[in-house]
Design a protein that fits this description.
By secondary structure, the protein is mainly alpha-helical. The protein has 3 helices and no strands. It is elongated.
Length: 124
């Protein structure tokens, strides 16, 4: 078992440089508070969230492409268990990135709802 873990760790180290080419996008900072934000601030934040979504989609495609290329390139050197470990690592990176993207979207959507609720009361 220790040998398998050591082999998986070694394989992961040889793959790590491949993922270095995939730039992990930074989430937008300081999303506006829907209670006090202006329409201009909300629209600017929307553009930032959309850009982040675009960048994250590109990142996800990049890590998938590089994972597939690494496995294909090293397929003859890796055991099926090592290949599964590399595939699992790519899935975990993907899921973590999607979770962060969803978190940003949820936070922004909450502020949009607050903004809309506040401004619908003001127009009545």
């Amino acid at each position: 078992m220790k040998l398998l873990l050591a082999a998986a760790a070694l394989a992961a180290l040889t793959v790590a440089p491949a993922y270095a080419d995939c730039a992990y996008p930074k989430p937008p900072a300081n999303l506006p508070d829907g209670n006090v934000a202006t329409l201009a601030q909300m629209l600017a934040a929307q553009k930032k969230v959309q850009a982040y979504n675009h960048d994250m989609t590109a990142y996800l495609a990049c890590i998938k492409k590089q994972s597939d290329a690494t496995i294909a390139h090293q397929a003859m050197k890796l055991t099926p268990k090592q290949i599964k470990a590399l595939e699992k690592m790519e899935i975990q990176r993907n899921n973590a990135a999607v979770d962060q993207l969803q978190s940003v979207a949820n936070r922004f959507n909450t502020q949009v709802q607050i903004y809309q609720k506040k401004h619908s009361k003001q127009s009545n």
